[in-house]
Amino acid sequence: MTAQLERTLETVRQTLEGGKSYRIWLICLAALIVVGLVAYFRQLHVGLITTAMRDQVSWGFYISNFIFLVGVAAAAVLLVVPAYLYDFKPIKEIVLFGEIAAIVAVAMCILFITVDMGQPLRFWHLLPLVGKMNFPASLLIWDVIALTGYLVINLVLVGYALRRYASGQEYRLSMMLPLILISIPWAVSIHTVTAFIFNGLSSRPFWNASILAPRFLASAFCSGPAIMIILFEIMRKYAGLKIEERALSKIAELVAYTIGINLFLLGAEIFKEFYSGSIHLTPLQYLYFGLDGHFRLVPLAWLALVFNILAFVIFLAPDLRRKALTRNIGAVLIIVGVYIEKGMGLVVPGFIPDTLGEIYQYWPSWSEVIITVGIWATGALLYTVMAKFALAALPNAVRAHDR
Amino acid sequence: MSRRDLPSPRPIEVGRRTFLKGAALGVAAAALPLTAANASLWSSFFQSHFAEMDEDERRQVIARLESDARKRYGADIQISATKAMPNVRFGYALDLSRCIGCRRCVYACAGENNPSRNPQIHWISVLRVKKGEKWVDLQGTEKYYDPQTVPEPDYFYIPVQCQQCDNPPCVKVCPTKATWKEPDGIVVVDYDWCIGCRYCMAACPYGARRFNWSEPSISPKEINVQTHYLGNRPRHKGVVEKCTLCIQRTREGRYPACVEVCPAGARKFGNLLDEKSEIRHILERKRVFRLKEDLNTVPRFFYFFAS
Question: Is A98 near chain B, with CB under 8 Å?
Fold first, then answer.
């Protein structure tokens, strides 16, 4: 027992320890978080008028980041699937780090929703028994349930595995497997429900298209694994994580297929809207070509499209996805591409023109950007600490007891 | 004298709901200030949903809200909670052939309903449409027209406010049931239950809902002191508001402010269940349509052409 405790304390010590660059990294993140907090308390005090959102465009940068991160949370865990399919050896680490990414992404989602709320102290109105949940009518309640459940599943999984590791023991895959298996359809559900929040609104033709949920999933399977590729590379380089090259290029191959599907679905949507050319074309027109002299999102939309296509080429060509450099470039391209496409590119055109035909060109305010950066820094800090703890806890060679 | 002989005080009933609320929120509550001066902050944090209050609780809450509002505006603000009258379903009709686009309704509404003056909130939007141009889905209309005089020969006008849908998408999407349809058909908001997520604003096809992006400001001179809990009582930042058909007036048998002020007589209001009402007369005899009927929101707000 004491030996286990000592092992745990040693792991904690290793988590906090690090080189000079590690400490600088932590200090930078902490500084960004503090600045973000200051901006948030100002927003709380003055009201959401510190944002650029108005009645015409009533959701903006916060909700854009929320959508992107739900996708990341979903896809990070789904790495489990190819991990099983391709049956490569360091499967446990992949699962663990994917789950840590999912936990961090969901935590960031909750933060983005919180900063978007006009009355965040009334969060308890959303809770069962004490609050007044509009279930099953409101998809927002579905999302609260889906995200909370997902967070709990992954916390339990990671908590169990790390507790075992930190006390110097192996975890038993048989204990994890049922939860891992539940987490796969659950991951699909969080992103589907998030898509349905928008999809179900007949008032907004841009979102009210059946292709929305499939597009959400397809794009999430582009950006989520790409983020994991980058995280694995970083952990391989700076933290000595052993990851087979083969594993990373397999993930890259998977991303190639999902980008292909995502581009196909986008093409299907573009064809339908532009060929039929009904009045409901206007949001897409605003996004790609501008509307009545308003072009605010046009450069971003094309940047995203070009990045997505470039990433597709890189991941499709076996030589390019096997080389670390080109693979990493491809991963960054697709992350940025999806961040635009499933962020601002999805939320803002839904409101343009608004339901009374007005065009209000939304662009995030400095306050919104600073708060957003603060939340990303919080996520980075959470991931750094959790991943560092996991790396410190992991035995040098992982052996499965039962498999 | 044994304990049993003492006159028993009114038993304190702790319902399951109240107990759970207390238990679950204990942690959150600990973060709030504890001084007596902040007692009202406490009770406002724990304030129940309007529909969950019994008569006693409602009276207490209204007394506290009135005293807060009086302190804030230095005016003798009264908050009523008049219920819907039986056998009443309100309906509204607007004669597009008469509207001259003067926006008197917009300002009468603001004078009546205590929306923020800075930033400026209006519950009615008057859209200007060029004659002969397309205005389907209201695209191509202009909200900020500003001519010397109205009406302008080349244009007509469509005032839009909450359409009091029978099948309201805003109510469907609200995660906390902070907005709902009353028995007389008015869609209302409990400003103290709304969490400010703005899902209802995304769902409304008529741009009828307004958000308090900052603390509303109204000069005490301009405050209307006759208010309703579900209508024109003072609001705070971070919550959604909208037209309530002047619930504080119409439940007392008066016309909404916009109907009263319209110099052209374009605005008609009445009880849809009353066969002899003017509104029924219009629905049965005029050429009536509703905005965005394809969305099946079933508005109780009708547009018509009398001439």
Answer: no
Q: Does B212 touch chain A (CB under 8 A)?
A: yes
Q: Which pLDDT does position B2 carry in this prediction?
A: 43
Q: How far apart are CA B228 and CA B247, in angstroms?
A: 7
pLDDT bin (cut points 50, 70, 90) of residue A82 is low
Q: Which is more confident, A7 or A70?
A: A70
Record the tokens describing residue A19, joined without a space. 């080189």
Q: Which residue of A has its CA nearest to B295?
A: A202
C-alpha distance from A146 to closest chain B C-alpha (Å): 14
DSSP state of B229: T
Q: Rounded to whole angstroms, how far apart are CA atoms A123 and A21?
A: 39
Residues sharing a CB contact under 8 Å with residue A183, sequence separation 6 or more, in sequence order: A77, A80, A99, A150, A153, A154, A157
Residue A324 CB-density burial (10 A; 0-12 exposed, 13-18 middle, 19+ buried): middle
β strands within A202-270, DSSP E: none
Radius of gyration of chain A (CA): 22
Amino acid at B64: R
How much of chain B is in helix, strand and coil states, percent to nearest 5?
A: 30, 15, 55
**CA–CA dist A219, A345 (Å, integer):** 13
Q: Indicate the residue of A130, A137, A139 with minimum beta-carbon distance to B25.
A: A130
Distance (Å, whole) CA A92 – CA A82: 13
Among A166-175, A196-205, B26-35, B262-271, whose mean pLDDT is lowest? B26-35
Long-range contacts for A24-30 (Cβ within 8 Å, ≥24 apart)?
A25/A384, A26/A381, A26/A384, A28/A377, A29/A377, A29/A378, A29/A380, A29/A381, A29/A384, A30/A377, A30/A381
Q: Cis ω on the peptide bond leading into residue A353 (within 30° of 0)?
A: yes
pTM for the complete prediction?
0.92
Q: Do B176 and A131 touch (CB under 8 A)?
A: yes
CA dist B126 and A58 (Å) reads 20
Place of tokens 């429900």: A193
Identify the segments of chain B with pLDDT beneath 70. Answer: 1-39
Instruction: Please report which confidence band the pLDDT of residue A176 belongs to, taking 50, 70 and 90 as the band edges.
Output: confident
Would the pLDDT of A289 be above 60? yes
Pairing label, strands B179-181, B125-130: unpaired
Mention every residue, 6+ apart, whose C-beta is less than 8 A from residue B246.
Answer: B112, B113, B231, B232, B254, B255, B256, B257, B258
